Amino acid sequence: MSKIDDIRRQREAEHARNKQTAESPAPKVAKVIPIRPADPTLAPVAESSSGRGDSAAEEGKCAQCGKVRPLVGGLISQHQKGLNKLCPGSRKKPA
Questions:
Q1: Are 79 and 72 in contact (CB under 8 A)?
Q2: Which helix (H) or strand (E) holds 8?
């Protein structure tokens, strides 16, 4: 068996599976009703996605290239200066 024959068989099998799922009846989906508190004072307080607070305080300027990058553990996040070349200011204290 050649590689081309194997790929052709995989494609035919995938096509048959897709055709079979398209012909099958669609599953019933339950209607989702959002739950809201009756009293707005009981609503949860929204936090940032990271849960650490203000996002402006979570950014710093790289000392080498000057890019504004997010901080990870108090250090500038890892970033590239060129294609596959890490910036020398990566993972160091912000400027």
A1: no
A2: helix 3-23
Question: Tokens 């000057």 — which residue?
Answer: 66
**3-state secondary structure at position 84:** coil
**82-93, pLDDT tens digit by residue?**
888 889 988 888
Non-local (6+) Cβ contacts of 54 within 8 A are 48
What gap in Å lies between CA 31 and CA 80, rounded to an integer? 46
User: DSSP string of 28-72?
Assistant: P-PPP-----SSGGGSPPP--TTSSS-SGGGEEE-TTT--EEEEE
Q: Are 57 and 94 in contact (CB under 8 A)?
A: no
Indicate the pTM of the whole model.
0.39
Per-residue pLDDT reduced to its tens digit, 39-68: 666 555 555 454 545 555 689 999 998 989
**pLDDT for 4 beyond 80:** yes
